[in-house]
Design brief:
GO terms for molecular function: nucleotide binding. By secondary structure, the protein is of the alpha/beta class. Helix content is 37%, strand content 18%. It contains 11 helices and 12 strands.
């Protein structure tokens, strides 16, 4: 478990999902929601079987000590690279996309499978690097936990009762750069690939993003910095019906997300095509570009054109 940045407590919660945890030490976790949702889960269903977090490194060494005590991690390392030769895979548990190429590089080059927290990237140059690594057969997986939200599962299976989706909305707190992917990846398995353009008419702390899809659906995502009371509120409006659902079981989403990585390590079969991650990252990047250019409608084809149609030539 490598890395810890401001506003992100994944090393605590994700490690606990593998290792279990010490309830007394977990009380000191600076993210109150983590011990709250872990405490609701029975011990018999808490952990992912057959996998453990054995080593931890964090940007602030004191964080590593606290996480290791809370989430029962036996080894603290002084450099991320120190885990090479000691582990079967690494999790890069940070959500600043512009840092991920350099955080992942030592492990990709050493042939160690990597799971990268969302978003994988937030710029074109880094997307090209990851795409080239995957093209060369490197085992890299990245996702938002919202891909696995159980409250949205019925609509991933089918929206036939709603007719043709004409309009959809979804909400998230925090920034578009770090949390826009939560909203995007929640709705992506419902509408599928085929996004056409992105227009962000908001500002850095209040993003309002209009996405057009080849199906004819219009999708609006609101990412407001302090909108913590409305995380993951999904609305679907179709020609024959409508639906509303809200993400509520954070633990389920995280455990299912991490289990998908373990399954990928065991089978070599991706839980979803990397092409989906490429399209999602283009949406993240297009949303940033549109906002920075005064709300211009940015065609998805503008973003990393070398990656069109899954041809990862860089």
């Amino acid at each position: 478990m490598l890395g810890m940045v401001d506003g992100n407590g994944h090393p605590y919660s994700w490690s606990a999902i593998f290792n279990g945890y010490d309830p007394e030490e977990m009380k000191h976790c600076p993210y109150a929601a983590i011990p709250a949702y872990l405490g609701k889960e029975p011990k018999r269903t808490l952990r992912i079987g057959g996998a453990n977090v054995t080593h931890i490194w964090t940007d602030d060494p004191e964080d590593a000590v606290r996480v290791s005590r809370a989430s029962l991690i036996p080894h603290i390392v002084s450099r991320p690279e120190d885990v090479i030769g000691e582990v079967d895979a690494v999790i890069v548990s940070t959500d600043k996309g512009h840092e991920h190429v350099e955080r992942c590089r030592p492990f990709v080059e050493a042939g160690i499978p990597v799971f990268v927290d969302k978003p994988l990237v937030d710029n074109e140059a880094d997307l090209l690097v990851f795409a080239d690594w995957v093209r060369r057969g490197k085992a890299i997986l990245s996702s938002s936990s919202m891909r696995y939200t159980k409250e949205f599962m019925p609509y991933r299976i089918s929206t036939s009762s709603l007719g043709d989706i004409r309009f959809a909305t979804i909400t998230t707190p925090k920034s578009w750069e770090r949390y826009g992917i939560h909203a995007l990846e929640a709705i992506y398995p419902i509408v599928g690939p085929g996004f056409v353009s992105v227009r962000n008419t908001g500002r850095a702390d209040k993003n309002v993003v209009h996405l057009k899809h080849a199906s004819g659906a219009d999708i609006v995502i609101a990412a407001h910095a302090d909108m913590y009371g409305a995380f993951g509120m999904l609305q679907l409006c179709g020609t024959a019906g409508s639906a509303f659902a809200q993400s509520q079981d954070t633990f389920y989403s995280f455990k299912t997300q991490l289990q998908s990585f373990i399954d990928y390590l065991r089978t070599g079969s991706r839980p979803f095509p990397f092409e989906e991650t490429v399209e999602l990252m283009k949406l993240v990047i297009a949303g940033i570009r549109s906002r920075e250019q005064g709300g211009r409608e940015v065609e998805l084809a503008e973003i990393a054109p070398a990656l069109q149609d899954g041809h990862y030539t860089v």
